[in-house]
Amino acid sequence: MNAQHGNRDDAEIRKFEALAARWWDPNSEFRPLHEINPLRMGFISGKINPAGQHCIDIGCGGGILSEALAHQGAQVTAIDLAEASLAVARLHKLESGLDIRYENIAAETMAEQEPGQYDIVTCLEMLEHVPDPEAIVEACVKLAKPGGHIFFSTLNRNPKSWLFAIVGAEYVLNLLPKGTHDYAKFIKPSELASWCRHYGLEQGELTGMGYNPLTKRYRLQNDIDVNYLVHYRKPA
């Protein structure tokens, strides 16, 4: 029942469930997530050491980021609305020997049940896949402890991001399956910042993430025109 929250896009969920078996294949459609995960973890651990921290990973998918947080000593809860993806995540954690709590529950429902319980809240590559991303931001704020750290990553909305993230990544370089992203759901950093200010968050570092098609490597960069990562704090 908790998973049947109104802020969901069933077409998006079906899309990821159809690929669920390939979450942990580093050469599959999820290869970009495997390759950017060290960059994401470096960004997070540069703000707070995950060891011993209570962390919730929202929109965890097959658990790539969740496991990385657990490997660094975090006590991880991970949630998603795609049950097939969670089944893969639960199986893989047994192979990894990690202690991660996976739940098929909406972020808004989780925020009602466990408000103020988490030192670290991560919501990466997820906001652009829901009808009401601002409601997810509000849930993240509710889940965080006073003084807690919140991390978002998503896609900017402008002609360059359309060219690179959709035309380039999905149709030219085949980095992602065609139809992975909907340009209309991309979020400008100013829009995300406005929501976060509304809920009282303090913005930290904002950085971009880019891909070099010649070296086939991802990197953090100052250019936030396409992908970007941002760190927020909930006031103590």
Automatic annotation (TrEMBL):
Keyword annotations for this protein, in alphabetical order, are: Methyltransferase, S-adenosyl-L-methionine, Transferase, Ubiquinone biosynthesis
Pfam families from the xrefs? Answer: Methyltransf_23
| Top-rank EC class of the record's enzyme | transferase
Name the catalysed reactions: a 3-demethylubiquinol + S-adenosyl-L-methionine = a ubiquinol + S-adenosyl-L-homocysteine + H(+); a 3-(all-trans-polyprenyl)benzene-1,2-diol + S-adenosyl-L-methionine = a 2-methoxy-6-(all-trans-polyprenyl)phenol + S-adenosyl-L-homocysteine + H(+)
Keyword flag Cytoplasm: no
Which domain of life does this protein belong to? Bacteria
| Gene Ontology process terms (BP) | methylation
Q: Which residues are listed for S-adenosyl-L-methionine binding in this entry? A: 40, 59, 80, 124
Q: Name one GO molecular function term.
A: 2-polyprenyl-6-hydroxyphenol methylase activity
By its UniProt entry, which SUPFAM superfamilies does this protein fall under? S-adenosyl-L-methionine-dependent methyltransferases
Q: Pathway involvement?
A: Cofactor biosynthesis; ubiquinone biosynthesis
Coiled-coil features, chain-numbered ranges: none
Q: What is its EC number?
A: 2.1.1.222, 2.1.1.64
Keyword set includes Transferase: yes
Q: Cite the PANTHER family for this sequence.
A: METHYLTRANSFERASE, UBIQUINONE BIOSYNTHESIS O-METHYLTRANSFERASE, MITOCHONDRIAL
Q: Which family does it belong to?
A: Belongs to the methyltransferase superfamily. UbiG/COQ3 family.
Q: What does this protein do?
A: O-methyltransferase that catalyzes the 2 O-methylation steps in the ubiquinone biosynthetic pathway.
Under what name is this protein listed? Answer: Ubiquinone biosynthesis O-methyltransferase
